[in-house]
Design goal:
about 250 residues, alpha/beta, Nucleotidyltransferase, domain 5, 5-stranded mixed sheet, 7 helices, about 35% helix, about 25% strand, globular
Length: about 250
């Protein structure tokens, strides 16, 4: 059975796993990406960690058949270039990820990459909650908001691979500026980072796991959470009208 070295590159962590062609995952490892506020460039953290992880597989006599990367930001799957991060990660642009990884491990493999939200949508369509749907939207909430759109059973990549970038869909007017330079972006208003930022403005220092439970007994904090859900409702309403999906899956 074929096995693939899979990498999930996010804004806070880089996750590795050995994945079979049936979707079974083993040899999971996580490396922190934001440990110093990106003083060390993210690409340097990736190259050192992928080299370490690959060496462990080699030491265990594990042969891989390829490498697949799920990547935060705007990426071009055809050229293997990271194009931009929309301001979320410094210097995360104009990088040939395949070339960097091959140089780090000293060997080339068949390589594929997708934006992380598009990869999530592909996974849901393959062995997840979208297996029964040909038209669906998957969006992920974290440091930012990423989206993957499935149309007639295929991922909508768009002209340069940026399709489904719903986090920068404008859903409000006159709000603070987003990291991308625009105003009123879905991501700036309703990501986990936005939720915690707004909670802090209201005087509450909470994390993403405890905020919802604490809000149940604190009306001022509940108002922050309600606004968070309001913006998600606005965005979902727009997505329903534009794409007419069978389902919207949130992760």
């Amino acid at each position: 059975m074929k096995k693939y070295l899979c990498i999930d590159i996010g804004g806070t962590a880089i996750k590795y796993g050995l994945v079979t062609e049936k979707g079974d995952i083993s040899h999971k490892e996580t490396y922190q990406a934001y440990f110093d506020g990106y003083k060390r460039p993210l690409i340097d953290t990736i190259t050192s960690s992928v080299n370490e992880y690959h060496d462990k597989l080699v030491a265990d006599n594990i042969v891989i058949d390829g490498i697949a990367a799920s990547v935060t930001g705007d990426v071009n799957p055809k050229t293997h270039y990271i194009v931009d991060s929309c301001g979320n990660i410094p210097d995360w642009r104009n990088i040939n990820l395949a070339e960097k990884i091959f140089n780090a491990i000293g060997k080339e493999y068949p390589f594929t990459m997708l934006n992380d939200a598009n990869a999530a949508a592909l996974a849901e369509m393959w062995i997840g909650n979208a297996v029964d749907f040909k038209d669906a939207i998957v969006y992920t909430i974290g440091t930012g908001i990423g989206g993957g759109v499935i149309v007639d059973g295929k991922i909508l990549n768009g002209y340069k691979g940026f399709g489904g970038n719903i986090g920068h869909m404008v859903i409000a007017d006159g709000e603070d500026i987003c990291t991308c330079g625009n105003h009123g972006c879905f991501e700036h208003l309703a990501s986990t980072r936005a939720l915690l930022r707004n909670a802090k403005k209201a005087g509450f220092d909470v994390d993403g796991e405890e905020i919802f439970e604490k809000a149940k007994s604190i009306p001022e904090l509940q108002a922050v959470v309600d606004k968070f859900f309001y913006y998600h409702g606005v965005a979902i309403g727009s997505l329903l009208h534009i794409f007419n999906p069978e389902a919207i899956i949130i992760g």
